[in-house]
Amino acid sequence: MKLCVECRTQRAAMRRPKTSEELCKECFYTAIETEVHETIMATNLFRRGERVAIGASGGKDSTVLAHILTTLNRRYDYGLDLFLLSIDEGIKGYRDDSLETVKRNEQQYQIPLTICSYKDLYGWTMDEIVAQIGTKNNCTFCGVFRRQALDRGAAMMKADKIATGHNADDIAETVLLNFLRADLARLRRCPSIITGADSTLPRVKPFKYVYEKEIVMYAYFKKLDYFSTECIYSPFAARGLAREFIKDLEAVCKACLLLEGLNRGLPRMGVGRTKRNGGDDESC
Ligand SMILES: Nc1ncnc2c1ncn2[C@@H]1O[C@H](COP(=O)(O)OP(=O)(O)OP(=O)(O)O)[C@@H](O)[C@H]1O
């Protein structure tokens, strides 16, 4: 039986994707939560007394965000007034089901939920828009409307900030997409942990440094209640290509793993052959 390298008492339940350390569940939770807390502290992400809208889609990222922000707010006494804000894009068989999850999260985390719909704000549901425009450019409508809908919903609820569940993988995909589109303004802006800092409603990404795989593991081990189906229109989105490309790069990037080990004082991390990083002579 392998013991957790952190507590050395419990059985290791996983190899942590970010560090390759073998940890028990409790030490894994502590590691993620502490890292998010340190990110929040190091970047002054919130101020005491702020009212924070958590963009809640019912998916894994925003569900874990709601769970971790609620936990940290209590544990470290941030003094934040948290609430869930969901945008109902009007996608039958997808958003209606995920909203049911958010309604349960409202009870589980004991933070109030507000739902704003495209139908009320714009007079159109996404299903109606897709019926007009087809499945090629529909994500443009959805992305632009959702961004504004989150702002309008948060302003209506007198929020000071919007927190979203964007993680390290999402940010890498966005960087790649903006690079491919040669969109320099967005390329410069998109990796920031806080955007619109000077506006009345800044947006923050507390999971900027959290790997998607670790969010999935956290949600799975904690048995969090989240909705895991992809948007029915997303197979047509360009983001999917960026995601595949980054996953392929990750699978062979032995040099990055070795370098990370050296920088973290774990020189043996990534030494030897694993299924994930291939042979010893693989490179980016
Ligand atoms: N319908 C929505 N209502 C409220 N917030 C949303 C909605 N859709 C997305 N968001 C916010 O934007 C973030 C990124 O959403 P996106 O759909 O790009 O990614 P995701 O990785 O699938 O996130 P999640 O797992 O939380 O659904 C979410 O984590 C959430 O905070």
From TrEMBL:
Domain tRNA(Ile)-lysidine/2-thiocytidine synthase N-terminal: 52-228
GO terms, biological process: tRNA wobble position uridine thiolation
Keywords: ATP-binding, Cytoplasm, Nucleotide-binding, RNA-binding, Transferase, tRNA processing, tRNA-binding
Residues binding ATP: 55-57, 61, 87, 165, 170
Molecular function via GO: ATP binding; transferase activity; tRNA binding
Domain of life from the UniProt record: Eukaryota
Assigned GO CC terms: cytosolic tRNA wobble base thiouridylase complex; mitochondrion
Function: Plays a central role in 2-thiolation of mcm(5)S(2)U at tRNA wobble positions of tRNA(Lys), tRNA(Glu) and tRNA(Gln). Directly binds tRNAs and probably acts by catalyzing adenylation of tRNAs, an intermediate required for 2-thiolation. It is unclear whether it acts as a sulfurtransferase that transfers sulfur from thiocarboxylated URM1 onto the uridine of tRNAs at wobble position.
Name recorded for this polypeptide: Cytoplasmic tRNA 2-thiolation protein 1
Organism this protein belongs to: Auxenochlorella protothecoides (Green microalga)
Taxonomic lineage from the root: Eukaryota, Viridiplantae, Chlorophyta, core chlorophytes, Trebouxiophyceae
